[in-house]
Specification:
Layout lengths: L7 E10 L3 E2 L5 H16 L17 H6 L19 E4 L7 E2 L4 E9 L6 H14 L8 E9 L7 E6 L20 E10 L2 E2 L2 E2 L7 H19 L8 H8 L5 E8 L2 E4 L4 E4 L2 E9 L4 H13 L12 E6 L5
Antiparallel strand pairs: 1-5, 1-6, 2-4, 3-5, 6-7, 8-14, 8-15, 9-10, 11-14, 12-13
């Protein structure tokens, strides 16, 4: 099994609405756009129109977090950016309206070296609240920031209160538990997988496609944000994954669209939601990748919270 060493930290921001805030049905794109603009205003010193022309690009928090540049990595030969080291969790706010005085939550996951940039990111989200977000640019104030003390356990510790001092905890590398007999994969947010540019719907979904996506993403995150190279026979693993059946699949296509400022047009971002089951006997080589995927997500649009899933483990075989 590869030596997984990517630190992960999860944060929960408690926010209080100052004016009415209305979020769209899926708020991931709204949060990502507002966050990116605020982070650039926070971190950019030179005010260059393009990061590629900036002398300080290598040292810039915005560049490293929001527009992570690709270098000579074989898996990224055809693209110019690497996986970004953050994931926003929009479900709690999606489709919601908040009135002045209401409190609500936004969760943020940071990966690898990005954990050290937390103060910049907190400030950026404060700036979002001051400038406004959602329909009508609703404003909010930061109440607290909490950090999950044990990944997946649901225990949170307050690391910052309004007007207080930040006391962040280190990130942790998830512990891989013993492999169960069966596991049900619950797709919490749309999983958008592409094959030759075509979105994969339920009839074409396979364990191999999921594993190829996870192995690529986790490998690149280690290379760019943990300074580690994962060694494995990826071709052999992919071939083995092709023979693994997906059981009791209950998958549906969930369509949504976001507006792209770069393309000046709406972009379709649909993906699969629902669940499926895997019998894991003999699949030891895949278990760690599948477990880690819960924290880093899979597929397209992960920074907007897409491709999030959880695992329900069953120790005993179903009767």
């Amino acid at each position: 099994m590869p030596d997984f060493s990517l630190p992960i930290a999860r944060y929960r921001f408690t926010l209080r609405a100052l004016t009415t805030i209305q979020f769209p049905a899926y708020a991931g794109s709204t949060w990502r756009g507002a966050f990116g603009h605020a982070l650039r205003r926070t971190a950019c010193i030179t005010r260059e129109p393009e990061c590629t022309q900036c002398l300080l690009a290598r040292a810039c928090v915005y560049r490293q977090v929001f527009e992570t540049p690709a270098h000579q990595e074989p898996l990224l030969e055809k693209v110019s950016t690497a996986p970004h080291p953050y994931i926003m969790q929009p479900l709690a706010t999606s489709g919601r309206q908040y009135m002045p005085g209401d409190t609500f939550h936004l969760e943020l996951t940071l990966l690898g070296t990005a954990i050290g940039h937390l103060p910049y990111l907190i400030h950026a989200l404060q700036q979002v609240g001051e400038r406004g977000v959602g329909k009508g640019d609703g404003r909010y104030a930061l109440v607290t920031v909490a950090q999950e003390t044990l990944l997946g356990a649901g225990a949170w510790h307050t690391i910052l209160a309004a007007g207080g001092r930040l006391q962040a905890l280190p990130g942790v590398v998830p512990v891989i538990p013993p492999m169960p007999k069966r596991v049900r994969v619950q797709l919490q947010t749309p999983l958008r997988l592409l094959q030759e540019g075509t979105p994969i719907r339920s009839s074409r979904f396979s364990f191999q496609l999921l594993m190829n996506t996870l192995m690529r993403r986790i490998t690149l995150l280690h290379a760019y944000h943990a300074g580690a190279r994962l060694e494995a026979d990826f071709k052999a693993l992919s071939q083995r994954a092709a023979a693994v059946p997906v059981l009791a699949a209950a998958l549906q296509w969930h369509e949504w669209a976001r507006y792209s400022n770069r393309q000046q047009n709406k972009v379709q971002m649909g993906g699969l939601v629902g669940n499926f089951t895997l019998a894991l006997d003999g699949l030891d080589d895949f278990w760690a990748w599948l477990w880690l995927g819960q924290w880093v997500h899979a597929g397209k649009g992960v920074v907007m919270g897409m491709g999030g899933y959880t695992l329900d483990c069953y120790v005993e075989e179903a009767a």
